[in-house]
Structures are given as C-alpha cells and as structure tokens.
C-alpha cells in the first residue's frame, strides 16, 4: 500500500524542473535548487492515498520540459521509502551556486559534533571578510564595520539568508573548501566538489564551475541528511530547521507545492550567459 504521507527528495540543477507531486500534472521551473520534503501533505489534506506517476512517465515529463528551456537541465527525485530515483542528466556536472552552502553547513556541524567547534563559539568578522557588493549578504548590510558572531548565528545567516559573508567566514573556520570535500568523501559522497569561495566566484565568472555536483549525488546527500547520516540528531535537526526557514526564492520548489507543505531547502542562482 502506498502511504498517504510520503517523503520525497528533489535535487534540481540549472534551469531544472519541479513537477506536481500529487498527480501527473503541472510543472514549475527553478534554477540550482534542492529540497527535502519532510511531508507531502498539508494538515488539511485528505487521508486517501494520492495518485503517483510511474517512473517512466515522470522521466518523460523531465525530457519534454527540458526541450523548451534555454540551458542545460539536470534533475533527480527520490522516494525515500523505496529508494526509487528518477533523473534527467542525473550524472552530469552542474555548478552548485549557493546550494554548496548545504555541504558547508553539514561540515560545520560535523566539527561541532566532534568538539572542534561549538555553536556558541564567537567568531570575529572583520571588514575585509565582508562579501563584496553584488553578492547577497544581509550580514554585511547590517554590520558594515564588522562584528563578532557565534557559529550558530553564522550558520543561520548562511542557510536561511544564503549569506555570502557568513559562508566564506565558515569556510575559513573549517580550513578551506577542500575540508568540506574531504568530509563528503568520508560520507562516501563522491560526485560533489566544494573548491572555492563566494569572493572568488564574485571575482571571476568562470570560478563558479569549480563547485559542482551531479543531481543524483545531491539527492543522495539529501537522503543521507533525511535519514540522519553524518550528523548527530541535534545537529541534523538544527540544520533542517534552518532549511525550513529559508526564505529565498519562495516561488520555486516551495511555491510549487500545496499550501502547508513542509519543505527544507537550499536555493542557489547565477547570472545568465549567452542569453
């Protein structure tokens, strides 16, 4: 029997597509977005099991929608209870943009779990640490002269506000991007690479391609997070809380779902190239 409340994880990369989850129906376009849905039913939803699409039908929808986009499309979705995955260009490399803040957040909380960091530990953010204008940074806008914040506050800025300053400060605290990639390898996640910072991406447009993931690898990381792998239960819940409170791009995955659906997600966007 198909349960009426199901967990579904979606990883969508670069002009990728989200689909109507309760039926084989409408679509919604999104860029570099990922989410883990802790429930696909609102509190007022009927208890009857909703119809689901066959995997082949869903894959066909991905292909049809991809034809009308103006860029490459990659997406993957997994039904957690069965492990079934449907993907389109699921093994292709895509730049992560701000989606890479999810593995950075996981790596930071892993260090908290190890005792190398604490959530209440104060970290100095100097004026020279602030993200340049043009990058999203509520932290920079609020504290233009610098500030001292806790690790918890930096994590919140990074995950909820997609803050570039907080991201780079945490990367420095971790020892650099390669430490995040090493953590992913410890989790046996092979097809995600964190290689550079927000500042470096702002200085050179081509640098964004150094941080990459495949849609299938990202959906695998979301499944790991959903099931409690790689983090303590307290760290996992804190990260999911921040992801549930993420407010950026509310019209993407979150906006395509029925009102009341609980969505934990991390968005990311780039500019455009060649139109």
Span from first to last CA? 47 Å
Q: What is the count of helical runs?
A: 9
Question: Which percent range describes the beta-strand content?
Answer: 15-25%
**What is the SS-derived class?**
alpha+beta
Mean pLDDT level = 83
Give the overall silhouette. globular
Radius of gyration: 18 Å
Order of helices and strands: EEEEHEEEHEHEHHHEHEHHE
Oligomer state of the chains in this structure = single chain
Helix content: 25-40%
Main pleated-sheet profile? 5 strands, antiparallel
Biggest β-sheet: strands ordered side by side in the sheet: 6-5-1-4-12
Number of strands: 12
Q: Which blocks of ≥5 consecutive residues have pLDDT under 50?
A: 1-5, 14-31, 38-51
Task: Outline the structure in words.
- The structure is a single chain.
- By secondary structure, the protein is of the alpha+beta class.
- Helices cover 33% and strands 17% of the residues.
- The chain has 9 helices and 12 strands.
- It has helices at 55-66, 101-114, 138-142, 151-160, 164-174, 177-186, 198-203, 215-226, 233-244; strands spanning 8-13, 17-19, 27-29, 33-37, 74-79, 84-88, 94-95, 122-125, 147-150, 192-193, 212-213, 263-266.
- It has a 5-stranded antiparallel beta sheet, with helices on both faces. Strands 7-11-10 form a 3-stranded antiparallel beta sheet. The chain has a two-stranded antiparallel ribbon with strand order 2-3.
- Strand 5 and strand 6 (84-88) form a beta hairpin.
- Helix 2 (101-114) packs across helix 5 (164-174) and helix 4 (151-160) crosses helix 5.
- The longest helix is centred in the middle third of the chain and has 14 residues, at 101-114.
- The chain is globular, with a radius of gyration of 18 Å.
